[in-house]
């Protein structure tokens, strides 16, 4: 299998390190807007980098991406950029006749009049609209296949198939106890994406209402995370799982809650109050136009570079409540990565490593023909068991806790 | 008297409107980096604008400012820019043989090792260092003559001369009950300057310790402001009065506390946590370099344009505690501006109008010879009574409250 990886940031770099250990990969072209980042990712592989090459690409230039896919005869495009670049990369893969895989879906737009009650354009809408064309082309766009969305969706399908007869609620719950030495404030994941997720109206799905939205940070709850992380305050945020799971898995309610913690929520609220979360440019006195959210990101350390100073564990998982053999059951299916382990094993910090391992597992399932399909599919559209087994084989097992 | 006004922002524009009603003014050149702002200020004066002209100037270009002062034969430069431009304008006036007047002094730099205990470079240090040259030239640099610093310093000198035999503490206290319709967050004064004041280590003066610093937002107290404003939480911030008053007025302690309110303090703390208060440029992905604090300012509405949506009053004043005729005495000398009044009378919002009226009063005292001197002087170096009387004559009386 020949892969075009677009994006050599934290997640993209971790993808190369994980894929370099697997034999399914024929060749991976590592492409980035900043060629030196792509080259650095390949160089860091050292002796195991023989199947990798670096290239420069502007992810917003659909024609250039299509040309690169064709020139390099790639079977699949793996998108590891921020979600702004989903539309051009998704289209470029279709135009080149390649499969496509991403870890975040096309962006939402709030309802113009009732943003905190009704959905406007939903996450992934722009991609699902094109499903018929992907089917017709016989190509697969596997969307939302990182850890969350991604592994969390696989857990949901697995629960429905093997653990429950009927499901009342599926709630993805994400929490961590990571700290970064020497920084007052240093998010462990892209602040651009985090702002997008957290300040957009959160979306909830209920069987009798469909999708609807709430005000930001709604329905706070304290969730007890496993493996020593402990209780963290979680709130509703907009996330792909809520848009994906109900398409393939029966449940009466689907939510996503993020363990942001009180402090982080306060920071996000203040950024919003001042207008610094905005992406539309503002004009400085000297005429320069900049997107305030880009400036926020530029003020903070690059999360991919913080691994050495980070301590703690991150947990992604899916809590499911329903009935099995007539009795109530409640489980939390989860995946924990200890930063100390991911740094030692891969030189990647926990959050980006956990995101990166899942699309590599998916690529291997596609390369070996265990997974196949056409159209625009979420991770829960495919057989969960081989995915979970292969993840364990990658040295990163998942867990199940009966509540 | 011929005046070069540098800066046609909110305060500069209000200066033109106040000065246009006074006969002492011979001519005022209104100069700004953005010529259209200067032209708009002059045009807004309509029929009373005969003594005003507009010019373009880069306030950071000392030679150009000197040349403009000479070409226009100005007696005095009135600096209404932000404090970054104090050094070049102060030097340009000296080089041109003009008097100089500003409303904020040259900036401080924190102590490199013990920023929250000891002073580094203090506010105004760079100006007071040059005092001998101003004296030698027979020219006057009257520094810190807005409302705070400015009127607050005049109050301190007045209290020492007429109300007290000995003073234990002089505490400048600033509070308001202003709100801005339609905005979640819309500071009524330059956010650039507000961040500078509030996030620098606050400075305190005590007779037996001299100047020293504390952590930001220290010594919170609730101060009850007059004329219906009521109680507001005030905290120590760095301000010129603490550096000026002890040079000319005997007191055992001098402080400045700003009625920021809890919400505003929270916002400033979060901006600082993310690093958005910084002035040193950060680099965006496309290579653009911007100062985060400039971006914060660009995200917010220009406070000078908010007058129509503002409601409430702003109060500047000086609280003094000491002995008179052997008995304890405590007074608050204050000046309140109601936004509704300043908008109706001058079309200027309350905070900028209150800042602007004081340097115009000072210019009139200099033009009429009531005030004179040479060297670098603070407002408390000169006779306070004529200043306070003339302020009342301007239609904006001050008050005294016995505590």
Automatic annotation (TrEMBL), chains A, B:
<feature type="domain" description="Saccharopine dehydrogenase NADP binding">
    <location>
        <begin position="3"/>
        <end position="141"/>
    </location>
</feature>
<dbReference type="InterPro" id="IPR005097">
    <property type="entry name" value="Sacchrp_dh_NADP-bd"/>
</dbReference>
<dbReference type="Pfam" id="PF16653">
    <property type="entry name" value="Sacchrp_dh_C"/>
</dbReference>
<protein>
    <submittedName>
        <fullName>Saccharopine dehydrogenase NADP-binding domain-containing protein</fullName>
    </submittedName>
</protein>
<dbReference type="Pfam" id="PF03435">
    <property type="entry name" value="Sacchrp_dh_NADP"/>
</dbReference>
<dbReference type="InterPro" id="IPR036291">
    <property type="entry name" value="NAD(P)-bd_dom_sf"/>
</dbReference>
<feature type="domain" description="Saccharopine dehydrogenase-like C-terminal">
    <location>
        <begin position="146"/>
        <end position="395"/>
    </location>
</feature>
<dbReference type="InterPro" id="IPR032095">
    <property type="entry name" value="Sacchrp_dh-like_C"/>
</dbReference>
